[in-house]
Amino acid sequence: MSVGDEPGAGAAGPANDLGAAVPTAVPVSEPVSAGTLLTPGQVVLRREILDGRVWLSHPVRVVAHEPDLLAVYLAHDTRLSFGEGEFSWGPHGWSTVADRWRSPGVLQLQRPGEAYAVWAFRDPETDELSGWYVNFQDPYRITDEGVDTLDHELDLWIPADGGPYRWKDVEAFEERARTGGFTPEQAAAVRAEAAALAARIDRGDTWWTERWTHWRPAAQWTAPPPPA
Using one digit for the tens of pLDDT, what is the confidence trace for 67-77? Predict the structure, then answer.
């Protein structure tokens, strides 16, 4: 999720085509062990790590943590914290937009070793599911602080009404790759992950819909303070 998808911005955007050669191999990380499972309801930090330092961090609540799934909830009005100093990608795009998550609360789903997360967005007026936002990012890593990852710019919007999915931020991703923000190998891996997921969706294989379409947060799950 990049600039233009900042908190409060519309989840769906203009359609784009993902045009690039697609390699067959995608680097993956090892699944977390049962001994490192987080506790449902626990508040942890979700951090984006760039240049070995925290670029963005904010608290989330753990919804479920299983050997093959991590689900967390980012509540409306959650405070965002941004890393200080110079970064190779410059300041985080949200740092000049807002210091809080302005969109409705969002459920974030990710499976170990996969370089994307699926975010469930609901209409703020009707509370009905409006769509699934696929955020391509580093496979998550469980740390003492919580969960670490890094956004890869590229995104995919899947409307809940069954309409065709739409690529987002392709130009931003390709510009990042062109200017050295990704190595050629890293850029190729992102494209491969995106192509593999698109093929899965085309086959009707959306692992997240059956269990999570009707999920709602507990009423008391408002914006949490950072964990102690």
Answer: 999 999 999 99
